[in-house]
Amino acid sequence: MYTYEELKHFVCACNRCSLCKTRNHPVMGKGNLHSSILFIAEAPGQTEDQNGIPFTGRSGQIFDQLLTEADMSREEIYLTNVVKCHPPRNRDPLPEEQEACIPYLKYETLLLRPKIIVCLGRIAAQRIIRPNFRITREHGTFVTRKNVSLTAVYHPSAILRDPTKFAETVRDFQAIKKKLQNTGPM
Ligand code: URA
Ligand code: SF4
């Protein structure tokens, strides 16, 4: 078993897929390593590629608002991405890039041992929950796998494109918070 710091070093030096040629900074997950809740988005954006920190651009502002609405904060959660390097022009990460990067996410999950996993957006939901997951129809629903509750919500960038999605995502976040409270202390 590697330590978290060792894992971070591997990610920072990684060249397992071709995104290593175009990225500026690999973006390791960030947050509370003792948290019971893990948020997984798809891949770093341009801002994150510049500063190496997940969700620090416009999507990050929406994400922070959603956390606040549900009385949560970055200090009490852990946040990461399926793919740790920025795909050029924000394209979806390719299946082979996801395949190359997924061991890091698996390792983060192993170290964290979360009780709840929240996928942010379709890409993460289809990778983590089910390949045919329909985000529009199924966001906010929970399934249980190996004693872990899994759910998905709209990606913050989808809310930026369509602000009418904000209110229902607030409701999803509030239901997630309730679930968290029912699973015991963080
Ligand atoms: N979008 C993502 O999916 N992840 C980030 O870290 C930032 C933007
Ligand atoms: Fe490595 Fe993942 Fe970056 Fe590809 S996306 S180079 S697998 S850290």
From TrEMBL:
Source organism, top-level taxon: Bacteria
Keywords: 4Fe-4S, DNA damage, DNA repair, Hydrolase, Iron, Iron-sulfur, Metal-binding
The reaction(s) this protein catalyses: Hydrolyzes single-stranded DNA or mismatched double-stranded DNA and polynucleotides, releasing free uracil
A Gene Ontology biological process term: DNA repair
Coiled coil stretches, renumbered: none
Domain Uracil-DNA glycosylase-like: 28-174
GO terms assigned for molecular function: 4 iron, 4 sulfur cluster binding; metal ion binding; uracil DNA N-glycosylase activity
Signal peptide from the UniProt entry: none
E.C. code: 3.2.2.27
Cited CDD domains: UDG-F4_TTUDGA_SPO1dp_like
InterPro entries linked: UDG_Type-4/5 (IPR051536), Ura-DNA_glyco_family4 (IPR005273), Uracil-DNA_glycosylase-like (IPR005122), Uracil-DNA_glycosylase-like_sf (IPR036895)
Family statement: Belongs to the uracil-DNA glycosylase (UDG) superfamily. Type 4 (UDGa) family.
PANTHER family: TYPE-4 URACIL-DNA GLYCOSYLASE, TYPE-5 URACIL-DNA GLYCOSYLASE
Name listed for the protein in its UniProt record: Type-4 uracil-DNA glycosylase
Organism: Candidatus Anaerostipes excrementavium
Species classification: Bacteria, Bacillati, Bacillota, Clostridia, Lachnospirales
